[in-house]
């Protein structure tokens, strides 16, 4: 009898718990007020289906469809180790909805902290890009609304549309470039180390290492900033054309094309995957464990210095909302450096679409200042404006950055003119 009552009590308990769970599920996920558009097949709102982030360089985000049918997208911040700094500015995802309808997106979380200060990476000039194939992109309006949110309305031309902040440049794009140029006798590709997650880091050499001058370029220290990758791709393709032979007689080019490959792969915004900024702490030795990307480069650079092949000029390519070149040592005891930077700036005005001018903001530990101080290399950071190319009077696209890269070939040629 005792066993009978125990069993009966157990079965009754299970029945009550089961019904409570069903009731909770209805209230939590399937209630009338929560995304009813997903449930009613006749609803006009039942046309949005999914935000796909399951591909290379897709951004990290959370999304929710609200009762008005707006897709609220909360982008994830990158966080810096031992710091209050955080960054977000990258969005890249695939929108799935019925062809022909308009979907409204609301992008959130643009309250960045940069060098300990608040910084908003979006403005009235911010663009949004869409593409059906992830290769050919076009610009659509993005409205900055209260609370630093971006509202984007997308008319679906097919049932899957890629959406991005700037034209993406992925590791697979770099791999295609490397296989395109790898067999060219003017090119040497050398592995110099690995990222935190073990991805190979390479230096591309173009031209003769015995040429009288050399320039080094780094791209993609910050993972969301693809402008530098498009620039070096444009430069490489230009230098491998026959009419560029005189350029490579005068100078050799070394390129670290993608410093923060892990961040690019994972669709992050700024830091490497251990939360370190690869454009900071250049005034200290590189941490082999936390920043193997910097350690590999510094090891390579030390080897070049020992061989007497220290680059004469070094440029770190970035994206921001200013578009300036950062001349980092604006003091009187660095007159030759300042004079060289002025000469380079003037050549940029004459032979590229650059018009934004220099910035003399002190940025201790950045690539430009670090290389200038520690290695005596004329080095600077070039920030490509991702919102507006003033010299072209348009929002910049990949082909514009590639054009600038090809134009740099002549800038270097004239900069390294011994008679000047
Ligand atoms: Zn940057």
Automatic annotation (TrEMBL):
The keyword Hydrolase applies. The keyword rRNA-binding does not apply. InterPro entries: Cytosolic_carboxypeptidase, Peptidase_M14. Residues 1-24 form the signal peptide. Its cofactor is Zn(2+). Residues 167-420 form the Peptidase M14 domain. Keywords: Carboxypeptidase, Hydrolase, Protease, Signal. Pfam families: Peptidase_M14 (PF00246). One of its GO terms (biological process) is proteolysis. One of its GO terms (molecular function) is metallocarboxypeptidase activity. Belongs to the peptidase M14 family. This is Zinc carboxypeptidase.
């Amino acid at each position: 009898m005792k066993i009978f009552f125990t069993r009966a009590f157990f079965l009754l308990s299970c029945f009550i718990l089961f019904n409570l769970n069903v009731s909770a599920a209805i209230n939590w996920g399937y209630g009338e007020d929560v995304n009813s558009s997903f449930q009613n097949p006749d609803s006009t709102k039942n046309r949005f289906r999914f935000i796909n982030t399951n591909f290379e360089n897709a951004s990290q985000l959370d999304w929710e469809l609200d009762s008005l049918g707006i897709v609220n997208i909360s982008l994830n911040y990158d966080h810096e180790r031992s710091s209050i700094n955080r960054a977000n500015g990258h969005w890249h995802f695939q929108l799935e909805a019925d062809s022909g309808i308009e979907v409204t997106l609301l992008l959130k979380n643009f309250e960045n902290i940069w060098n300990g200060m608040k910084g908003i990476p979006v403005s009235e000039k911010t663009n949004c890009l869409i593409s059906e194939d992830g290769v050919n992109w076009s610009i659509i309006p993005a409205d900055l609304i209260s609370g630093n949110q971006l509202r984007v309305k997308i008319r679906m031309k097919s049932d899957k549309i890629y959406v991005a902040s700037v034209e993406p440049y992925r590791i697979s794009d770099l791999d295609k470039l490397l296989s395109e140029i790898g067999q060219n006798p003017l090119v040497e590709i050398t592995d110099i180390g690995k990222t935190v997650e073990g991805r190979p880091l390479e230096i591309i050499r173009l031209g003769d290492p015995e040429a009288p001058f050399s320039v080094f370029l780094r791209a993609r220290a910050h993972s969301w900033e693809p402008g530098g990758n498009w620039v070096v791709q444009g430069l490489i393709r230009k230098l491998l054309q026959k009419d560029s032979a005189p350029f490579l007689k005068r100078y050799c080019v070394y390129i670290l094309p993608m410093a923060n490959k892990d961040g690019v792969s994972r669709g992050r915004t700024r830091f490497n995957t251990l939360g370190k900024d690869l454009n900071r702490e250049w005034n200290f030795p590189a941490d082999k464990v936390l920043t193997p990307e910097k350690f590999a480069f510094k090891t390579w650079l030390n080897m070049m210095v020992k061989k007497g092949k220290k680059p004469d000029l070094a440029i770190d390519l970035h994206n921001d909302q200013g578009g300036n070149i950062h001349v980092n040592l604006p003091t009187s005891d660095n007159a030759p450096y300042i004079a060289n930077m002025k000469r380079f700036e003037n050549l940029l005005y004459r032979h590229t679409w650059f018009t934004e001018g220099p910035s003399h903001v002190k940025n201790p530990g950045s690539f430009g200042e670090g290389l200038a101080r520690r290695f005596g290399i004329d080095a600077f950071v070039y920030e490509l404006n991702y919102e507006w190319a003033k010299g072209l009077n348009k929002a910049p696209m990949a082909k514009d950055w590639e054009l600038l890269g090809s134009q740099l070939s002549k800038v270097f040629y004239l900069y390294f003119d011994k008679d000047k």
